[in-house]
Amino acid sequence: MSSAAEQETHAAQRETRAAQQAARDGTPARPSATAVGHPVGHRPTAVAPRRGRTTAAVPGPVVLPGSPEPLGARPRQGPDGAWGTNFALWAGGAEAVDLCLFDDDGHELRCPLPELTHEVWHGFVPGVLPGRRYGYRVHGRWDPWMGARWNPAKLLLDPYARAVDGDFALPAEVYGHVRDWPQQHVADTVRDDRDSAPYVPKGVVVGDDAADGAPDEWTEDRRPKTPWAESVIYELHVRGFTMRHPGVDPELRGTYAGLAHPAAIEHLTRLGVTAVELLPVHQFAHEDHLLRRGLRNYWGYNSIGYFAPHAGYAAGGTRGQQVGEFRRMVRALHAAGIEVILDVVYNHTAEANELGPTLSLRGVDNRGYYRLQQDPRRYADFTGCGNTLNVLQPHVLRLITDSLRYWVTEMGVDGFRFDLASALARAAHGVDMLSPFLAVIAQDPVLRRVKLIAEPWDVGSGGYQVGAFPPLWAEWNDRYRDAVRDFWRGALPDARDLGYRLSGSSDLYERGGRRPYASVNFITAHDGFTLRDLVSYERKHNEANGEGNRDGSPDNRAWNCGAEGETDDLDIRALRRRQLRNLLATLLLSTGVPMLVAGDELGRTQGGNNNAYCQDNETGWLDWSLLEDPGWHALTELTARLIRLRRAHPVLRRPAFFSGLARPPEGLRDLAWFTPRGTEMTESDWYAPTTALGAYLSGRELPQRDPHGAPVTDDSFLALLHAGPRPVTFTLPGPPWARGYELLLDTAREEQDAPPGTLLAAGAPIELPERSVLLLRALTSVDLRQKTE
Q: Is pTM, for the whole model, over 0.85?
């Protein structure tokens, strides 16, 4: 324990550092608001009176100098060979940092970190071993007008904490300012000196345990390493995927262990998807407005710990056990040939704007971690969530890249989808594809080798950047979503946009050496209607969210097939199932990387809620009982069949764009478009309204070679799409395109197994059913002779 003399020395050091900081800033202790918000000369900061529970500043054990590297809490041997933990925290501008250690009874020991190296406060504490809980209190000026919001009364989560124990509640005590100050326009300037430690979770010291999958567990040869062009992504929620799964043990449902369960993985392998894209699994917090309404943040786009697996998804404990459980989940998915992609939220944190709680970064160094407006009391908000991380600050950029590398090298993940990626690509004066963040990723030897997916927009000016990200990056292609939705609801003015989207979106991605797999094609995502709701509702029904149905986008591009919501009308129900087959067939036959949303293949519904971010209940969870319904079971089988077809035929997953050029000797094109008359589409046809078109994909000369250098060839296919309400006559292209055709898929059928020997004559007219997709295999003379013998 520290002596009284040592405590006095530490206090004197803090005073000296405060004076030095003020001298560097060139400002005397800048005033804050008084209780009534009026300025009063050079005065001390206004603070609220202490009320409620507090934690005494009990001195802790002796702290040795330790090391400023690596950041975070890392167990190691000390100078005398005894084990302990090195603690290191970057806190630019802080005057002092107290390490706070908690025992199993919640008693707090405070250990001032003695060393400061390049703005990193650090120290080694002997005897602190994995499983010990901790946090920080950071001392500094309270001057919101200058963006300074240090408040040592608030216990802060280590930004590098690898595990978190406890839940975030949001009583008034966790706010750095007096949340309920009568004059709300200055409430954020009045410091709250009540202790937050009893109300916030703590970081947990985590060791490198080989039994749970140490870094050498993730050598490259253990990863599926699925090529981009062969990928089929399946977006799912760790909790929602298994909460109602009858094959998963009840105590494992909704957890990492539940997703690793053989019953859960069996569904993924039966579908044939190659990667799961997990909604956020970083430690996140629930928003105050949701907690007040008895709701919770279900999706998790409210991160607060970028190294810690969300503790709420752990079945085996939260004192570090969640780390091993997550690793075992990844290992089980890899063993099944499935990659793991994380949806990550580095654009903002759960601390919101100046009226939000003080949980971590705000209390460590508000001016360093966040983008502030010209009035530094306010936050720049390019995310719609109250704040934006300042990726121009080197240590913030380091936080993000250290986190990404950690999840790759030590947790085993295979890629990332970056929420609101344009916010990360913002430089000093707007979105810049040469920004520090993108430049660092491009040269990083670890990160440039994993799958990188951008959500290429944010809510700021100039934030919409679809097609603009550099090579290495794929993008969520919302133009694909909109074009396909509009086509199948009969709202496309002409065929131009649909043609680009079905063939890989070359207008967006061919520049700069990018490939068709830069386009992540999707029709639905977690945000918006499910696929079933897309054909059952035209208007959002978000009343359960408690926001008066004001939340969620009103632009759904949906068609309810004649009735809003569920109906007993058998014809409408049959039409809806047909539309689902059309949408799934379109997605899985398009060039690019398809992304499915978990449950769409089951006919999952959210009752018309297109913003179920707070529905941690049966609305948001998958209903596995749908598989018992023959109609929905058939939809699942169709999805798996389409994925198998895609995997078997490289022409359906081309790694290079089509040229569209006629090739000798027969003048065949690698991609040709046809009208119902059986003629190739002309320029005027592209500008004319249409509900039906055909796409011929040639497999004769694919732009790729096998591992031995031999050319890759494939069958050729003709896909016919018809979104109109009545059948049309479609003349099938004759020679040289084909000598005949074999029917492989007809979405007008509930069951998709075509009668054996279903052959169609080339050059002959067929009746194309209303609202349907037909996939035909083009037959050569040899094929035709073999089929008819």
A: yes
